[in-house]
Amino acid sequence: MPETQSETQKVRGGALLARALKEKGVDHVFTLSGGFCNPALEGFMECQMPVINAPHEQVAGHLADGHTRITRKPAVCLVGPEGFANAVPAMLEAQGERAPVIFVTGSSTLKRQGAGGFKEIDDVAIAAPLVKYSAQITDGERIGEFVDRAWTAATTGYPGPVHLSLPVDVMFSSFPEDAGRRERPFSRGPKPLPRAWPDPSALAEIRRLLESAQRPVIIGGHGVWWSGAEKVLEAVGTKLRLPIFNVPYHQKLLGEDCAAYMGLADFHQYHPAKQAIHEADVVLMIGGRLDNQMNFGNPPFFPADTKLVCINGSHEELEYNRAADHLLLSDPGAFLTSLMDMAPRWQGWFELQRQRRQEWVESWLAHIAAETEADEAAGRKMHPLQLSLDVQAEMGDEDWLIFDGGNTHFWSEIAVNLTGWQGKKLGGIMHPGNYSLLGVGVSFGISAKAIHPDKNVVVISGDGAFLSGGLSIEAAFQEGLPIVVVIDNNGGLDCISQQQERLFESGQHFATDFRDIPFHSMFEGLGGHGELVERRAELAPALRRAMASGKTACVNVKCRGVISPIVAATSDKRDKASIE
Predict the structure, then answer these.
(1) Where are the domains of the chain?
(2) Helices (H), 1-37
């Protein structure tokens, strides 16, 4: 009896993993190469899969996260057992943004599990609360099945990161090339994502509620982005004259220059949001969650007499939104498309929000002009808001801006709203998610550059944020992806210092200062371009030289510490220790 192909052709478990991921449509892997992962790396090499080797597993996770956020397509972070512990913060960050990153651990031997195997760690249990799906593959015949399960969990419903653990003995063992192929599904390639269509009667009720509203607003969240519905969101807001706000700490849904986009649904970083939400009679929250940022749907954020409607594409999201007055299970794009036949009727309310935004912009611009004039007259360091405004002035319409840090992040959020009102366009904006994890900015910048190699990518990072994740800059040098890092250097963890000065009875801060770190020299030592900026007049020329250098560059800007509105509002002296 002749041998079958599956009996003669065998491959390692790692190769089966690589092939299954490639078949699903994965096109990038980020890793710190380790012995436990070698069979998978060999498999990726044979599949001609691009693999980027990072200097740290957390960096590899953030690179995969950044790639996934921009492309809306899962990327893989591959790590070893001890590297899994380093990748945990990246899981947290991806979970906060609902990015469907596939984390894969080459883990300790299955044969001796529970007996103190080499580098043994219960990675499945540790990852479980941080991801949508966490499982160990115990049979090489089922590698393709588990990849299929993980992919489905990551991409359907409310997306999010997943984790697979492949023990080293399964990783190195040999299996038939067609392992698991005798069972359905026979085709395991990418498939169209299932989407929820609204129940007609429930949709009709919400349409009636909207049609009777005098002062409606839309708050857009994660679900709009991951369903690819931001274009129809913009079209609905523009046509119907509905003001749109963005959930804070989240992928920007609309360009800041969009006529319908007003700003963050954050009363501190964008004050007119409070007026709009408090005066609204109907709030449509689309693809978002009633979490701490939305005060769980309660007053005083949403007044008791406001009708709060949550539209979500999955039951997982709706479970968070039990406080809403009305719930609708619907793909955000399907719901928004269903509104396009409505007639615009809120022009006055819409123009009121635009007027308030204009007044807010004018007030801030007058404030920062006065601050900058005083800084220059007194020979002081520049204001961090002025820094962000000046950086954007040197960027093109398709360039990418990333910001990272505490106050640095908050000031940059205000700056993009100001410049957006003035007509400034950017190719994209990225920043930490709702966990406000420091140190992601450089990794996100590298991800943006890898996807848009012909565009300038500028990262504005606080000095503390750079110290948290700046080692990732080596990947920019290694992969030939030159980005510009502008460091808002105020000499310490300024956001924390300011909270301490309000909290501590002495009015002083403690254990938050840094030495004078020459970040620009660090970049020069690695083979890049570096400049120190101590006066505002030096900034624009330094930025132009950095972008023209063709090298990964650092512009190290000495700024003064200025408390941001969100920190000032949420850290009352001796009452609050941190942002709540």
Answers:
(1) 5-176, 200-352, 381-570
(2) 5-8, 13-24
